[in-house]
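User: Putative endopeptidase, Streptomyces hundungensis:
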Amino acid sequence: MNVSPGSRHLRSWVALTALVGTITLIPGPSYAAPSDPKPADGTPLDQIHSQLDGLYREAEVATEAYDGANEKATEQSKRLTSLQSDLARAKGRADALHGLAGAAARAQYRGDYFSSAGLQLLLSDHPENALADAARADRTRATLQLIYENQKSASTELDRQTEAAAKNLSDLKKSLADKAGAKEKIQNKIADAERIEAGLKAEQVNGLAQLEKQKADDAKSMWSGSGSNGAPADKGGTGNGPSGGGPAVSGSAGQAVSFAMAQIGKPYGWGDTGPSSYDCSGLTSVAWAHAGHPIPRTSQAQWQGLRRVSLSSAQPGDLIIYFSDATHVGMYIGGGQIVHAPRPRRTITTAPAASMPILGVVRPGG
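Assistant: Predicted structure for Putative endopeptidase:
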């Protein structure tokens, strides 16, 4: 009977332990200096606005990728810690059974409990002793068989835990690489946009502000004609509505809206979930967690994981998801308005709900 698990488990254990140690050594991507994006003199304002908007959109798309990779890496890191504990226990059990099997085999060899018990019974002057010897031999064989079966089970479990930990480690390394790549892209796009803004003249800055105001006014008109009721969900509120004269909203939706409105004026920070700065989905996820209803971290996961409702039935507290790739989110506060963290170099503010292309509406909290 072969009771040795071999040395392959030890090799797997050592290899995996070495791999785990490498995850902190993964280099981040090199920071490539972006080309000069400054517009030429005389460039139309709408073209400058489109260029800036495009760069910040790309930064926001990368931010969602960063947030998603960060969420995965966090969960995978926790899972890896748990798997390492499971793996250590499995290895300890396999080692203990290996030692026990060896000791039992040596004891059987030294004792030799008359494997031909039938012949011993016939030849013995004391049959009762022979029967006892035979019973001991049977028990020994049964014990060895049990040890062997348990050792096989422990060996299989060790293999399974080693494979699971190795896969999780591979996934974690990919998530960390994705996170680093997204971070580099965010930094590059923001740097490009900042270079453009730094080169603008005062009249261009004022002109862009007027252009944005005009776009906001147009968005209000678009919402009015969108078929949305645009009305606050006021059911005799309980003081949970947003500050600053906003609609009164009751229940958990009111708590989420109140929290989000209280963050107005705080800066946008990519990858941030407060308390001093937020990105778009960081604001909505923390607001709803504050209301007692945790929701997914990213706008894409919010779009995929929360109950969808029609635009015409949007209520305060609902989340409006923007763009075809679901890379921006704002919280509807009623009256055709959202509160959101718009983009880098801006602060949390209210805006017309139709100020960006709407993908759909989701409702947290049931």
